[in-house]
């Protein structure tokens, strides 16, 4: 595919933060190095049939050893920031108690290498790799995990806090709740449906307690990375509207409103949480310096059984028929190799609706993930995807939404959870036989676009 030559991007503010994202379990490998404990994902992936291509995260992209090469790529790309995650079981192998100095040393080296390359480190403290020792005690279904998370956050902040300015507590507690505890398609493989909801509350509480721990260590700038997308209603019928509202409640509002407004959006739902939650909500709702949004696509939702309800595999996720809502295929847009519709204007819609819903309670927004899976190194489709989404982002800013940064998912191809290595989200191609990194066309396009922005 030849590289399209789109018109120059609109100009973003001078101090706008440009970055790329990764996560530990998806890139590090070296799962037994330096006394690292097992994570719930190590255990899940080792079970037959869990990962579609039969792979596991033991080697991944070997970033643990190859990080100097990856930092050099970041420098060449010209991003100002790099969002990575710290693996809890690498730092605290059993989740609480003894700390691994070797584990901390790795992140220490990474942070120093990033700073030397002129790239600001933006660590996420938790991106789904729960220490297996805690998972065996109930994982995020139990309250103690939130407290142990805050103790671990303190350990990381103590070590890195002199050089890290911007922190992220959690990545997408919604996906871990739904896919990990509700449907069992991600680690820890539990299928609790609505009984998974305590995992949402305890992650949110863990977020709040971690904010307190980070502030106590003097952290300058703290956010969360929640996944959000507009929910589109299949029809104006009462049944479809109710189903879409419930989907929006569970995937969007349940995770935004405790953080932004200090309350749960619905009383029936709150009754399923381990109560009383009033005091916890005060902890959860402490002010943030910015609110991170991972955006991928809108979701079209109707009542189950309705015409058009997607059967079987939906966007890589198998939704059981007993759920009270049914996502439907969105027609009329291009699709990524993963089958996800490409709808840049839904990013504008999402941001404007957040602004309308939350007004003054919404701190500045950072897009902490946005990206797509396509095969190939000459990835014109990814260029078109990024170009379209950056224009949509700029439009939301022109409409008055205060957006301070944008991070592409992902720096390089990596372990895409239950999909294994089959889905490639990287700006950099990884050959899994040799672990060689090759920048794709989209990498060069973004590098040039950032140079252009810097000239302005
Ligand atoms: C993120 O999750 C993760 O943070 C990251 O680790 C991951 O590698 C990356 O995205 C790419 O997947 O239309 O209802 O079927 C993404 C969350 C959840 C977004 C599923 C797309 C499709 C939902 N995704 N969603 S649906």
Automatic annotation (TrEMBL):
Its catalytic activity?
Hydrolysis of terminal, non-reducing beta-D-glucosyl residues with release of beta-D-glucose
**Mind listing the UniProt keywords for this protein, alphabetically?**
Carbohydrate metabolism, Cellulose degradation, Glycosidase, Hydrolase, Polysaccharide degradation
Q: Write down what this protein is called.
A: Beta-glucosidase
Question: Where along the chain is substrate bound?
Answer: 26, 127, 171, 296, 409, 416-417
Tell me which residues this entry annotates as catalytic: 172, 369
Query: What Pfam families does UniProt report for this protein, alphabetically?
Result: Glyco_hydro_1
Q: Which GO terms describe its cellular component?
A: cytosol
Give GO BP annotations, semicolon-separated. cellulose catabolic process
EC number(s) per entry: 3.2.1.21
Q: Which family does it belong to?
A: Belongs to the glycosyl hydrolase 1 family.
Q: GO MF terms on file?
A: beta-glucosidase activity
Establish whether keyword NAD is in the entry: no
């Amino acid at each position: 595919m030849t590289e399209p030559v789109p018109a120059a991007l609109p100009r973003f503010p001078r101090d706008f933060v440009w970055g790329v994202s990764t996560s530990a379990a998806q890139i590090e490998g070296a799962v037994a190095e330096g006394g690292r404990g097992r994570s719930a994902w190590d255990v899940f992936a080792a079970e037959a049939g869990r990962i579609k291509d039969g792979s596991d995260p033991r080697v991944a992209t070997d970033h643990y050893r190859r990080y100097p090469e990856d930092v050099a790529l970041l420098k060449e790309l010209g991003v100002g920031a790099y969002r990575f995650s710290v693996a809890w079981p690498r730092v605290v192998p059993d989740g609480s108690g003894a700390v691994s100095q070797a584990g901390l040393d790795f992140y220490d080296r990474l942070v120093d290498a990033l700073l030397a390359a002129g790239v600001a480190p933006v660590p996420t403290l938790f991106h789904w790799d729960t220490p297996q020792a805690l998972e065996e005690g109930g994982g995020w279904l139990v309250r103690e995990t939130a407290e142990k998370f805050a103790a671990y956050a303190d350990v990381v902040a103590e070590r890195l806090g002199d050089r890290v300015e911007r922190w992220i507590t959690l990545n997408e507690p919604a996906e871990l709740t739904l896919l990990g505890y509700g449907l069992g398609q991600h680690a820890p493989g539990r299928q609790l449906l609505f009984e998974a909801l305590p995992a949402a509350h305890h992650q949110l509480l863990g977020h709040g307690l971690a904010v307190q721990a980070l502030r106590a260590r003097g952290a300058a700038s703290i956010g969360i990375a929640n996944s959000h997308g507009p929910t589109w209603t299949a029809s104006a019928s009462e049944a479809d509207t109710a189903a879409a509202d419930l989907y929006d409640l569970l995937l969007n509002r349940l995770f935004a409103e405790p953080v932004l407004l200090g309350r749960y959006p619905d009383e029936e739902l709150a009754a399923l949480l381990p109560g009383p939650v009033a005091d916890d909500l005060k902890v959860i709702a402490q002010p943030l310096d910015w609110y991170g949004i991972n955006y991928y696509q809108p979701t079209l939702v109707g009542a189950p059984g309705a015409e058009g309800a997607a059967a079987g595999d939906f966007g890589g996720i198998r939704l059981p028929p007993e759920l009270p809502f049914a996502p439907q295929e969105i027609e009329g847009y291009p699709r990524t190799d993963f089958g996800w519709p490409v709808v840049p204007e839904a990013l504008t819609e999402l941001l404007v609706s957040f602004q309308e819903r939350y007004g003054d309670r919404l701190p500045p927004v950072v897009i902490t993930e946005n990206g797509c899976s396509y095969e190939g190194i000459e990835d014109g489709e990814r260029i078109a995807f990024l170009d379209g989404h950056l224009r949509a982002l700029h439009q939301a800013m022109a409409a008055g939404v205060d957006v301070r940064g944008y991070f592409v998912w992902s720096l390089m191809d990596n372990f895409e959870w239950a999909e294994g290595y089959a889905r490639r989200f990287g700006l950099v191609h990884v050959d899994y036989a040799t672990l060689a990194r090759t920048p794709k066309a989209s990498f060069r396009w973004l590098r040039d676009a950032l140079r252009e922005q810097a000239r302005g």
